[in-house]
Amino acid sequence: MNAADENSTDVEIYRRNGHPDRLHIISRTGAAEELLVLLDAAGLERRCEETDGPVYIWHETPDGLSRRAQRQLATRAILPLLVAEYDVNIDPDEFDVTAWAQALQAHRATQSGNASLSQPQPQPQPPPPPSAGLPRSRR
Q1: Which pLDDT score is estimated for 32?
Q2: Is 63 exposed, middle or buried (0-12, 13-18, 19+ CB in 10 A)?
Q3: H helix count then E strand count, the chain
Q4: What is the widest separation between alpha-carbon atoms in the chain?
Q5: How far from the centroid of its chain's Cα atoms is residue 47's Cα?
Q6: Which pLDDT belongs to residue 82?
Q7: Parallel, antiparallel or unpaired: strands 11-14 and 45-50
Q8: pTM of the full predicted structure?
Q9: Which residues, 6 or more positions from 41, have their beta carbon under 8 angstroms from its beta carbon?
Q10: CB 27 within 8 A of CB 4
Q11: Are 84 and 67 in contact, with CB atoms under 8 Å apart?
């Protein structure tokens, strides 16, 4: 069982103890391929570990990124997940407010660019920021 399974979320984003060089993006066991593809498309690197039981799949930020760049990348990855109605939790210390605002602005621009000029469409409200509860102990 992983952090997403334990917390009943689809995705958990945090920095593992003893692994300060990257963020870990853990999806629930047996996550839909659609979810995994959204994480891939965000620029996160997919990892896989096969066991006698389930196959564990997770994502990480790429090597060589600064902590700030890691936070920005992970934060920008959240909006498409929320739009697709996935439940995401990010450690509040890893959430980048500026990257979130930029992602929302880009999303709104895309939405207004897709609206028909002849028939104005109501704009969907963007999802609220992901839950940012108290950091949990990570193994």
Answers
A1: 94
A2: exposed
A3: 4, 5
A4: 57
A5: 15
A6: 95
A7: unpaired
A8: 0.78
A9: 80
A10: yes
A11: no
More confident residue, 65 or 113: 65
Single-letter amino acid code for the residue at 129: P
Give dist(CA 136, CA 96) in Å, integer: 18
pLDDT tens digits along 64-83: 999 999 999 999 999 999 99
Give pLDDT tens digits for 29-51: 889 999 999 999 999 999 998 88
Residues 80-108 pLDDT 10s = 999 999 999 999 999 999 999 999 999 99
What contacts 79, CB < 8 A, 6 or more positions away? Answer: 100, 103, 104, 107, 126, 127
The b/e string for 65-102 (b: 16+ C-beta within 10 A; e otherwise) is beeeebbbbbbbbbbebbeeebbbbbbeebbbeebbee
Sign of the C-alpha dihedral computed for residues 71, 74, 76 and 81 taken in this order: negative
Q: Give the integer Cα–Cα distance in Å for 106 and 110.
A: 6
d(C-alpha 93, C-alpha 48), whole Å = 26
